[in-house]
């Protein structure tokens, strides 16, 4: 447990020292959302109607942005091999790295999402739902993304390939995330959506570290 | 309208029924032809390589 | 049986023996199926003659799912037992499954135009099929993305196993999403009470598509086996060349 905490601390420190990852992800998130009013027009009602969906899609793409780097640096400088040789289970190491990755890229998105809700005229209730669903959903995105990042480690055109692999798997999270926000805005009970979102997150938490660790072992062989 | 014409017209849906059958034929036929061609090529390449190695072995002292 | 699964040469012999039979059965089934579908089966009372698209559309959609399941099972077996033949089965299945998926999408679109009045509708089944196509493309792309073919095969097999866990979740979520956003589609079969005159050609076509898949699978696996043998021979050549040069 202490070893895993050390990995999280190390990754956080590295991310803070390089510093730009979180800023870039948030900047992309806001920028991508900002394009929509230019694309569909500044009509406030229309923006309010599509706002939650746009925010979710932009968050999904932004979280994809930093994913390639999840294991890349450690793979290239050999420290991933050292980590794999350590007595810690590789699944735990994956989980620690995903945790650190989520803290540096997922959490900033959630912090920035009220700004998106404001820009898109979503309203207070929708804003709360957006924050809550992103909180549950981005963990799933990071976990599924870790599998993709591990699978494409060392591949040609890894970045594009990663998006091709991971985006279809993101669809259920997107559907239930946006579904929750839409239900809250329209005044319907949203519990079924939230429960599904949480169920997917729990399932991803249970299965993705195994798959990612298996893929990492293949990459290190 | 003759029997053939009415058959081809498919009750007004001919423009949708026939392309879907034609497309199925083209796609599945294409899969079959490319697969068989790839197998023939691999067989030829393997035979040539085997021939070559056995010749080398024969010439070797 | 285990010998055939594990030994490439035994598999090659079995494949050479089985493939003429499979080719013949496929030809008979597909000819009979198309004949029954076009000439014998009755027009639907609501969809009229356009229902004949069903006989090429529905089997393709079934095969797209069957091939993915088969691919994931082969990939899982390959990972567990490190069996090269199972890797080859998964690799050989992917393009064929993608072709079936593409076919299901195209014929679905051709069926949808007269029924819905649009080439594409975000109907739950069409949408799931589109996502499935991308899962196939991801498998194919990952398989060929590495310089080391073994690594590519194992990464792709892992992806197929992850994918098969996700497929029911994706299917369920798309169904849920679709019922939220639009009324039930026009294109609805009346469940198991479909008339026998329609069911028989449909089943014949489905079995014919399956034997077609098995026939093409044998051809493609033979190709992959040949390529593996070529690679092994070349490596041996390089090694003996080195020794001779010394």
Keywords:
heterotrimer; A: 221 residues; mainly alpha; 87% helix; B: 61 residues
Question: In summary, what is this structure?
Answer:
Chain A has 221 residues and is mainly α.
Describe this structure in words.
The complex is a heterotrimer of chains A (221), B (61) and C (246). With 221 residues, chain A is mainly alpha-helical. Chain A has one domain. Chain A has 9 helices and no strands. By secondary structure, chain B is mainly alpha-helical. Chain B has helices at residues 3-9, 14-59. The longest helix of chain B is centred in the middle third of the chain and has 46 residues, at 14-59. The N and C termini of chain B lie far apart (82 Å). Helix content of chain C is 82%, strand content 0%. Chain C has helices at residues 2-6, 8-40, 54-81, 84-116, 124-143, 149-181, 196-245. Chain C has one domain (51-184, 193-245). The chains are: A mainly alpha (221), B mainly alpha (61), C mainly alpha (246). Chains in contact: A-C, B-C.
Count of individual domains of chain A: 1
Structural class of chain A: mainly alpha
> Major β-sheet of chain B, in short?
none
Major sheet details of chain A:
none
**Parts with pLDDT < 50 across at least 5 consecutive residues of chain B:** none
Task: State Rg of chain A.
Answer: 18 Å
Shape of chain A: elongated
Secondary structure category of chain B: mainly alpha
Q: What Rg of chain B is obtained from the alpha carbons, in whole angstroms? A: 25 Å
Mind sketching the topology for me?
The complex is a heterotrimer of chains A (221), B (61) and C (246).
Chain A: H1 2-18, H2 20-40, H3 44-65, H4 69-76, H5 79-85, H6 90-119, H7 124-151, H8 158-186, H9 191-220
Chain B: H1 3-9, H2 14-59
Chain C: H1 2-6, H2 8-40, H3 54-81, H4 84-116, H5 124-143, H6 149-181, H7 196-245
